[in-house]
Amino acid sequence: MEEQENKQQQGSFFRFEDLRVYHKSLDYYQWLRNQVKDFGEFDFKVIGKPLLKAAANISINIAEGSARHKSQFVIFLKDAKTALRECVVWTAMAGKDGLLSEEQLAASNEQLAEMTKMLGAMVISLQRNGQRENRSEYQQEQSTSTDLDSGFEY
User: Fold this and answer.
1) H or E stretch at 37
2) Domain count, the chain
3) What is residue 139's predicted lDDT score, i.e. its pLDDT?
4) Model-level pTM?
5) CB contact at 8 A, 54 and 83
6) Residue 7 resides in a domain
7) Are 14 and 63 within 8 A, CB to CB?
């Protein structure tokens, strides 16, 4: 029990495992698997399989991007949002084909909307922090060049 508490306090070895949006994406994938398991063979092949792949890509992009530099992480988060929008389209198709009920579509869209907001907030935060870092580097360069210029005699 203590070991589990220590692990939670220290955080995960893999940074993405500490992200709530990552866990929400895994929950969505599991929820979706339960929804598509009753699709017929043809419908699973045509709609279910690409839908599950798109849902998995949300989690995969979050995980892969978290190991990268901030600017690259932003790109992967945007790719996760792209996969998320693919899920919206695939679930709409499944709904049109009568494979998902209105309630299932609403539940899916609710989860996808929540993750979209979370990913968008992360992108904005990372971009804002990146701009601050760039400004700090620029200010350091300016102060260094000013220091050098003021100490130089002609």
Assistant:
1) none
2) 1
3) 55
4) 0.78
5) yes
6) no
7) yes
